[in-house]
Amino acid sequence: MTGPTVSRALVAFICEGRTRELPPDTVQSTQRAIANWLGCTLGARDDDSVQAALRVADALAGPPQASLVGRDRRLDVVNAAWINALAANALDYDDMHVPTLIHPTGAVVGAALALAEHTRASGAQFIRAVVTGIEVECRLGLLLFPQHYDRGWHISATLGTFGAAAAGCVLLSLDPVRTGHALGLAGTQSSGLRAMLPNACKSFNIGKAAASGTLAALLAQAGFDSEPDVLEAKFGLFDVFGWPEDTASVLADLGRHDLITEASLKPYPCGVVIHPVIDACLALAEQEPFDPATVRRITITVHPRTLVLAGRQHPESALTGRFSVFHAAALALTRRAAGLSAFDDTDVHDPVLHALRARMVGVEDPTLAPRQAQVRIEYRDGRTLSQSIEHPSGSPQRPLSDAQLAAKFTELACRALAPEAAARLYEACGRLYHLPDLDALTAQWTRPGPARAAPPDHVQ
Prior knowledge:
alpha+beta; 2-methylcitrate dehydratase PrpD; CATH 3.30.1330.120; 2 domains; four-stranded mixed beta sheet; two-stranded antiparallel sheet; 21 helices
């Protein structure tokens, strides 16, 4: 890349993010994504992993600075970012940038919400911070995917740390020097292993990225130095994680096209590579009544990555069931549903589902894109039915309608809030860009308290 390094190009972009005018489609996409993030966080409020993390955070927490979504309590900004982001990912229902397999809002919104609430940022400032953070993490994802992911790095965590730090820099109004140091501080904390995807540590990775990015921005604001060219420096991120082949094309439209508009909002609480298979199975189940006893074999043809990520024939738990293309297919065919209640209420050891999964065969087809799938059912009487999917529901090509997103949000939010509060929260998300602060959001899960003074120049 000629001209500025990638590190410095991102620093300039982040610093411009404080005042950048956002296109209407970017604002709308971001408001929908934040509503989705809040719904997922509320839905996982009582998840065992969230409860365990909260017990530790309570013991470590500093002064109450930011609220925990769905709870009438506050923690310091670092621990609030950690717990909220962890919860957002716990149900595997949060959004996805499919070209990079990054959950774009996970760590970024966790960090941005905590700092925006504490600094009394406006809705527009909050949205600008989120857009900027998502752009940074996903642009880095385009540079490093798939090699980075294929080596075993949990890309939503490693690069989510950068996104969270970038969002923090916008909200703390850091200058270019301090922003460069914040990215360096994010880079040295960037971590997360794909080995953790089938267990609760998957969501810990996302929460830790939010906390680390928040800490990076705060340390930079306080004067802490780091390597400002963290990506290109000797033994920096690219040296360790792998040098990208083409930086110029990925950064060519930086600031002119926002990747948040390409995010998929999941209709199903499971790995996104499974979604086209679910769509195909639901379409088949609509064609005629489905009786598992009449099936001889079901062939599921997918991109090879699908079976690498979700090839468990017989999952051992509800969590690993969310990473089994065979279990998801069995649910869709037998329950004619694959939503939150279908995954949560179904015993993965159900003998009917186990027998049906045993008659499924996964076939890799490298000519298929990850978004594509084909399901073929062969019946014992010789009949066959098949269904192909080009673009899964929830993708930018087949986005969730406003009604579908509202229904998803309501189902999730009502696990933690009264229906009236959930409705008010969703309505506030739709006008978030024009809110003077975030009180219209946080008021739905916290009791009113005394007015908070404007924060000092440095968060304390």
